[in-house]
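Standup notes
- HV: blocked on the assembly model, inputs below
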Amino acid sequence: MKKPRGFKDPAYVIVSYLFPIILAIIILIPFLNVSAKSFSSSSAIVSGSVFFHPIGFDLSNYSYILDTGLFGKAFANSVFVVIVGTLLSVMTTAMVAYPLSKKELKCGKFFNYLYLFTMVFTAGMIPDYLLVRKLGLSDSLWSLILPGMIWTYNMLILKSYFEALPQEVEESVFVDGGGYFCCFFNFVLPLSKASLASVALFYGVSYWTDYTKAMLYITSQDKKPLQLFLYEIIAQGAVSGDMSSSFTLVSAEGVKCATIVLSIVPMLLVYPFIQRFFTAGMLLGAVKE
Amino acid sequence: MKKVYAICTLLLLALSAFAGGSQEVQTVEPEGGKPVLNYVYSNVAFNPEEEPIKDVLEEVTGYEVKYNMLPAENPAMKLNLELASGSKYDIVRISTDWFANLVAQNALLPLNDLIDQYGPNIKAHINPEFFASTTVNGNIYGIPNGTANPYGVYWGIAFRQDILDEYGITLPNDLDSFTECLRQIKEKTGLIPLTTTEPLVDHIMSAFSLSTYAREENGRIVLRPQQEGMYEYLEYMNSLYEEGLIDTDLPINKKENVQEKFVSGQAAACLITYGSETPMEVMLPALRANFLDAELSYILPLKNSDGERQVSQLAGVTDMVVIPVSSEHAVDVIKYLDSTLIPENSKLLAIGEEGVHYTVDESGAKIPILPKFFEDRGNSWWLVPLNDSYEFSNYWAELRIRKNEDVFSTFKELSKSAEFGRIDPTAYMPLTEVRTEYEAKLKNMERDYYIQIICGAVPLSDYDAFVQRWLDAGGQELTDEINDWYSSNN
């Protein structure tokens, strides 16, 4: 029998190294260009002479962004939404998933269908908007958290994980006189740390990256989350307005690049620590015994 | 069993819909009984709540205003959604192209009686001509702002005088000398003779007796595609393109590419404005940094065969303030707007105080005190809802454009063309639904086509067929409507 081509096959080695390297370069080049521009003088940027390293090193793009104070506010808003939103989401999702994972729950199937219903049918943008308005949530950071706080998909992941927990643990709690609450907080949650972490990650990333809700519900400049702020800076290009509009004495392109760099940095810092949960999360609920 | 689920679900949904119908959040009444007014306008990259002008407005009007902005993407859609759901807004500032739709939806409050009763300064300081744009069937639905630079010229062509001098090329005056100038630049320097993003260049069109989008010919209004000279203009531009005398990247140029080519010395001439399309406050310092002796010369509109020049001037309404029917504070809004137009207030709002924001030199010219003027009044255009139609253009030309010397000098150079200006006869025509529906759409269609024909993607012989397509796409309807209005008003 012919052996499969092994790791030592030179063709394999070349391809398996070359391909990721090329891919990495393709991803790195625009990033290098953006960060080089963010540190360059506006003359160099409008002359189009900046490629991979800063020309006429200059921090005025950064000082412009930080001076207006909008970046800081937007960043703080995003951090608030991510932390509070993730905590609330994980908590409520687990609290829904736990009872639904119990076979003895009355009408359990019905409630299950209710949640599944929301996965298939959504009301759409206008009813959502009206609901948020009538609840008095428009132009509030809570409008970014409360609508869609529980994702059915994440709830199902936790539910199937809870279902797989050994029945005997719970029975022992009941024998010792504990109820469902005791069981949930003292045993189920601590035992599910890994899956809770993955679900928290899913929520956290979605809160961090979402700007569509903010676009609909937020109207004050100082309540915008970072992603919307970033999107608008990039979408607008320059500062919009009439002929008497303000100008900045720094190039719009430079400001754009500096904002991008500033908003990438926190992700770059955090990502190495949470990366392992991503892979763990992908497999959650994939195999059921 | 499944049916039961479905029914229960529907019931629950219906219940939750009822639960959502609770009372609106009311605007808070501050001390003194004056309501907080909710203002909304376009998206900007600063926080209006922190602008110094906010306090000045509050002080002179006695009203507190909360500032909201529409998103950068699909602002009209968002505004429609908000107004349809009974928005909280009291003062809505809109661009002219949204007006007809909002009126058709009955979303706006007629203002005639309110202005008569509470708006003496609105009547005195807003040009009645502007109101023609915002009046439908005798009802005034919006209080208009005119252009800040009326009768001014927005675009011009700047040549690098230092390059022309170095190679002994003279600045053009008419069509032949213009072609010759570009040809010599190409032959002697190898640079791109002229770079731009626009297929329609005012100063060249002048040589073909073209300027405004609408023009009177023998008592009738003719729009640009049907104007005499348009075919010849495109033919000429096509010949420039074929010969490589205008930037061959014309169809793909973005404004950043054009800035880059001009500032880095790849192009010897460029279409220039003092507006944000070519930010001179960044471009000129960069140009000087790259070429120590860089110097710009602006040409006048090229002479036509009769030796005349012409150029399209800025005129008309740029934006307006409307009050949605859902506003509960219409009277207060009019009182608020009116007090911003009291002459000393509108002056303070536009240019600030003498000695603090500007000084007056011995010749009587006002000079801004920088950076104070820029810090306090730079973004005031967004917050101050209305401009005095008669005074604001003076404030603007004297001081507001002077926030930066490079921008100001560009403005002055471009203004030299203004003596050849022509005003569009439809500048003060009402913003009807037909205009809103077709004007922007047709202009886009034209722009795309002009680029294609200049670049040779479409043969010149196709032009008659294009005009027919243009007429079918709404050009005929628009022309008829404009002529109906024109004949009944002249």
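- HV (later): unblocked. Confidence is low (pLDDT under 50) at residues 238-246 of chain A. Chain A touches chain B through 52 residues (CB under 8 Å).
- Next: hand off to the docking folks.
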